[in-house]
Amino acid sequence: MTHRWLAALRGDPRPWLLDPARPAVRQLALRWLEDRPADDPDVLAAQAAASARPPVAPILDAQEPGGWWVKPGPGYSPKYTGTVWSLIVLEQLGADPADPRVDAACQYVLEHTQAASGGFGCSGAMRADRRPPPSSVLHCLNGNLLRALIAFGHLGDPRVAAAVDWQARAVLGGPDAPRFYASGTSAAAFACGVNEGMPCAWGAVKALRGLAAIPTAQRSPGVQAAIGAGVELLLSVDPATAHYPAGWGGGVSPAWFKLGFPSGYVADILQVGEVMAELGRARDPRLRGLPDRVLARQDEAGRWRNEYPYRGRLWSDMDAPGQPSPWVTLRACRFLRAALG
Predict the structure, then answer these.
(1) 52 burial class (0-12, 13-18, 19+ CB within 10 angstroms)?
(2) 10 Å Cβ neighbour count for 11?
(3) Facing residues of 114 across strands?
(4) Distance separating alpha carbons of residues 169 and 302, to the nearest angstrom
(5) Gap between the Cα atoms of 263 and 9, Å rounded
(6) Residue 78: pLDDT above 90?
(7) Confidence band (pLDDT; 50, 70, 90) for 1?
(8) Three-class SS of residue 197?
(9) What is the largest distance, in Å, between two alpha-carbon atoms of the chain?
């Protein structure tokens, strides 16, 4: 069978991505590019091996016995080694949900990072007995943590359900909306005080990633409506241009066009494509310019570099400087496979 996405590449990166020497990449490539189920023996073997190798092992090795990283408390600081960031990166690395250290991190976040409103708040306080205020809840962090907690098996936890509920109500607004704050989530439809009260496309990407992790059959009408609102915002402009609302006179952020890994609160144009693929929208006509934009960044071997690597700011660097990145290459292949067939 001829695959259009492979024909569009300058080389076939699959053997490189499936190399057992990189088990974290391998287990995701098996799932995303070969459609292996999560309980496939090869997937499980690679996932187990990844726990003992960089980049997963350095994160888990740095965890304190109480489940937190660096300092106790809500865990938003320091970037990008604090508790919430470590958990977010572990999810993107496909860490093993059965690892007790991963579960301890999930439980710590649920106990210390959730505001009274139900959403997860951005607080770097060193107070383990004080949760972040509702005014600090933002779509980006809430979506990122929803994604991680659901991926690690906590969808059935009532506290995760409360964060899902906050996410949907904050997007949709109306009489059931949570209280909005000028300094944080400031209105419905992804408005954010950090973006001068304008809709934040970065926040929308992260919110959709969190909600997309919920199996389709388990999405409430509110969640479905919130997903629809996010899709419409992200496809209201050509994602390849990233000409989304930008506050403070900043214009389009150049970070949109730096394909990177991992991903914090910043999103790139490829992540828009990835979440649309997860939602079954990879071939939406409004995405038509994105595959070519992504393809143009490949090298002569059909691989991509990490242009936003957070180098020196993580527990360990993901990629060697100047070298092709298996992580970004895997992201690109996943999107292109869904978009081109």
Answers:
(1) exposed
(2) 13
(3) 120
(4) 42
(5) 24
(6) yes
(7) low
(8) coil
(9) 58
Both tokens of 286, joined, read 């409004």
Strands 198-199 and 185-187: unpaired
User: Cα separation of 7 and 60, whole Å?
Assistant: 39
DSSP secondary structure letters along 131-150: PPPGGGB-HHHHHHHHHHHH
CB 336 within 8 A of CB 5: yes
217: tokens are: 């059959």
Q: What one-letter code names the amino acid at 206?
A: K
Q: How far apart are CA 243 and CA 233, in angstroms?
A: 11
**What pLDDT score does 179 carry?**
97
Token readout for 85 is 């960031």
- Residue-wise pLDDT for 111-144, tens only, equals 999 999 999 999 988 777 789 999 999 999 999 9
Q: Is 35 left (phi over 0), alpha (psi -120 to 50) or beta?
A: left
Query: How does 21-47 read in b/e, with b if 16+ C-beta sit within 10 Å?
Result: ebbbbbbbbbbbbeebeeebeebbebb
CA dist list (Å): 229 to 127, 206, 327: 36, 13, 29
- Listed in order, strand segments (DSSP E) in the chain are 185-187, 191-192, 198-199, 304-305, 324-325
- Residue with the two structure tokens 């965890």: 63
d(CA 272, CA 315): 26
The per-residue DSSP string of 54-68 comes to TTHHHHHHT--TTS-
> Any idea where the domains of the chain sit in the sequence?
1-19+238-246+255-341, 51-234
pLDDT value of residue 129: 76
Indicate the SS3 state at residue 120. Answer: strand
Total Cβ atoms within 10 A of residue 69: 23
Read off the pLDDT of residues 9-48 as tens digits, 9 standing for 90 and up.
999 999 999 999 999 999 999 999 999 999 999 999 999 9
* H/E segment holding residue 191: strand 191-192
CB 189 within 8 A of CB 229: yes
Amino acid of residue 50: A
Residue 138 is encoded by which pair of tokens?
């933002």
pLDDT single digits (tens) 311-327:
999 999 999 998 999 99
Q: What is the DSSP letter of 51?
A: T
Separation between Cα atoms, residue 266 and residue 284, nearest integer Å = 23
